[in-house]
Amino acid sequence: MHxxxxxxxxxxxxAVYAHKHGIERTPEWFVLKLQEEVGELAQxxxxxxxxxxxxxxxxxxxxxxxxxxxxxxxCQTLLLARYHGIDLEAAVADKWLVWGSNT
Length: 103
Description:
- It is built from four helices and no strands.
- The chain has helices spanning 3-21, 27-48, 59-83, 88-95.
C-alpha cells in the first residue's frame, strides 16, 4: 500500500470520528492533535523503558501501547500532510532518500 492510499483510508476513519464526536478539524487541530499523539508516544516509550510508572501494565501491554501510539503518530502525520496537500512519498524522497544514492 502506498502512503497516499493509506492517508485516504485514515482520512475516512478520522472524518467519521470527528463527525461522531462533534470535532471541527481546523488547520490548528491537525497540528495540535499530532502534538498530542507525540506526547502520548513519549509517555508510552518512557513507561516501556522503565523511565516512568508502568501503571501496573504488563510488558505485553506496554509494548502494545507503544505500537498503538506509533500508529497514532503516523496516522496524524498522514492526516496533516493530506490536509495541506503534501505528497509525503515525494517529500521523503526529496529529504531522505536522496542521501541513499550518495553513500
